[in-house]
């Protein structure tokens, strides 16, 4: 059910970008007790005032909560000692893990405690992924808990073009704990068995138990014939739990994680552009994606789940901004005129969206589209190339209403942004910044007055044009190039005799007819 990278890698790479970091413990040295350097247990000294004050301070540390809730018995086995020693010899590993776990560990521990489960289970992602929510294995296991697609499906974790719930910290945590609870009951309420089954599947562990019973052998975990990785999996968790429990005694500097919520999970109710969401949360898009690693595209999934993780400190202002956001301002739209030979799949590819999204946005049930008709297509609001589209190319879902040539004013409200205001008034950001002498990156102030000239259209001299050559770069698409040079995808196809189902190649030369004005 679950296959992960071998724990017995030839080397250990201690760097933030790695998928997982696991000890190099080999069977050929397991019985060599002379190589073990595990410190002897220290005897308890009389408690001083300083000790008590330190204990009070540690109540605010999530690691201390984990220590207080530990339930598993640490076996006195040489393989456990080997893994314990590895953690002692590689303190940088736990520093990396702590940095990655900090936003999520409080949430995970809360879910574990709600179910009265051993808090050691919060350490399983250390072994599975080194707390890297984007970790991926060759067996297609992904996320903090390294769920495979069959396991995700069995526990109703969604995966699609927009979203991978295996990488979503909330969804994957709930699924992993559901699985562990199921395995605990299935395995006769034996956590050694359940944790082993989490690694290699319940059938393999049950068969090993049955085999030992039939042969008159003991059936405790240590006597079972299991795959090498599983035989190391439980000892590694025991060693890690012991390290966390006795970090002070072992001289390990375990960076404290404040015992309070680091994240808030907000119900946004419908699809939302991530650039806009980041702006409302007052963080960068990269920070938002780090908190929401299950989101694979430029917006949340159109059909849900409609849950977004934001910093706990930003939740109140984010919700206020979300409440004041116009429904049509949640994502950006372009209007596309269907050409002869177009298909929904090809159009979706050009605009980096999904066929389902185009169908839902336009009320299309099948794949039939008619040349000459228009489609409304969702696009990223702050794509660096799409941002250069002119006012005629950037159209909101509603038709443009040009009610007056005279100046109009608008007062900035809480949660407003240039993009949202431009979308609401069917104008471009460039027009707003020009009319109001603003910098594009300038922050708006609540109560600030903006002016608009809805019927003012930029004039261009279409007769003054020239042919330019463009060299395709890695990551380019027809829609990005067309947006950058303010032409249409159809024009690019026609000028270069392209076929819609052909991919652009880096280094390929295109010719474009653009205005000199």
Can you count the beta strands? 8
Question: How are the strands of the largest sheet arranged?
Answer: 1-2
Characterize the main sheet: 2 strands, antiparallel
Number of helices in the DSSP assignment: 20
H-E string: HHHHHHHHHHHEHHEHEHHEEHHEEHHE
Query: How helical, in percent, are the residues?
Result: 25-40%
Taking Cα atoms only, what radius of gyration do you get, to the nearest Å? Answer: 29 Å
Query: Average pLDDT across residues?
Result: 79
Percent strand equals 5-15%
Uncertain regions: pLDDT < 50 for 5+ in a row? 1-21, 27-44, 384-405, 457-465
Shape by Cα distribution: elongated
Q: What structural class do helix, strand and pairing data support?
A: mainly alpha
Termini gap: 62 Å
Topology:
Layout: H1 49-58, H2 62-68, H3 78-89, H4 91-101, H5 105-114, H6 124-129, H7 149-154, H8 169-186, H9 191-200, H10 202-214, H11 228-245, E1 263-267, H12 274-281, H13 285-291, E2 307-311, H14 315-323, E3 332-337, H15 344-350, H16 355-362, E4 374-379, E5 408-411, H17 418-424, H18 429-436, E6 449-452, E7 465-471, H19 478-484, H20 489-496, E8 509-515
Antiparallel strand pairs: 1-2, 3-4, 5-6, 7-8
Q: What this model shows, in words?
A:
With 517 residues, the protein is mainly α. The protein is 37% helix and 9% strand. The strands form four sheets. It has a two-stranded antiparallel ribbon with strand order 1-2. It has a two-stranded antiparallel sheet with strand order 3-4. It has a two-stranded antiparallel ribbon with strand order 5-6. α8 (169-186) packs across α9 (191-200), α9 (191-200) packs across α10 (202-214) and α19 packs across α20. The radius of gyration is 29 Å and the shape is elongated.
